[in-house]
């Protein structure tokens, strides 16, 4: 397989909070530690659940103990802050754009567009 046959993605995020950048970088490190050259949602989930995450802090504040999957999802939703008031932060809503190349690029692009 030549390099041109390999699947590659380039993703650009605008308006990301610094904590998102930290989580993405940590997820990339987790992927590399597991021998992967790609960043998967599993790596991101592992990074988001590391000690000190907003989810953990909210869980500790509420002294919740063991949770079901639905309760974890509800807790994650509860960590989302309200609307920004004032003129701080980005002027425009956050965006994610991507480019895909390689032999599966059409399939990957269709999947991404269908799920987002």
Main traits of this protein?
2 strands; alpha+beta; 116 residues; single chain
Question: Quick summary of this structure?
Answer:
The protein has 116 residues and is of the alpha+beta class.
Strand order of the largest sheet: 1-2
Helix-strand string: EHHHHEH
Mean pLDDT: 91
- Helical content class: 40-55%
| Beta-strand segment tally | 2
Oligomer: single chain
Termini separation: 30 Å
Strand percent estimate: 5-15%
Largest sheet: 2 strands, antiparallel
SS class: alpha+beta
What is the radius of gyration? 17 Å
Describe this protein's structure.
The chain is built from five helices and two strands. It has 116 residues and is α+β, with helices and mostly antiparallel strands. The protein has one domain. Strands 1-2 form a two-stranded antiparallel sheet. Helix 1 crosses helix 2.
Write the layout of secondary structure elements.
Elements: E1 8-14, H1 18-33, H2 41-48, H3 54-62, H4 69-78, E2 95-101, H5 105-115
Antiparallel strand pairs: 1-2
Helix pairs in contact: 1-2
């Amino acid at each position: 397989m030549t390099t041109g046959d390999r699947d590659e993605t380039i993703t650009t995020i605008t308006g990301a909070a610094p904590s998102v950048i930290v989580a993405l970088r940590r997820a990339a490190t987790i992927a590399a530690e597991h021998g992967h050259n790609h960043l998967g949602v599993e790596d991101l989930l592992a990074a988001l659940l590391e000690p000190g995450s907003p989810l953990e802090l909210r869980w500790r504040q509420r002294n919740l103990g063991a949770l079901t999957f639905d309760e974890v999802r509800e807790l994650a939703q509860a960590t989302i802050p309200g609307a920004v008031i004032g003129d701080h932060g980005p002027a425009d809503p956050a965006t994610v754009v991507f480019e895909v190349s390689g032999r599966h690029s059409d399939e990957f692009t269709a999947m991404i567009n269908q799920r987002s």
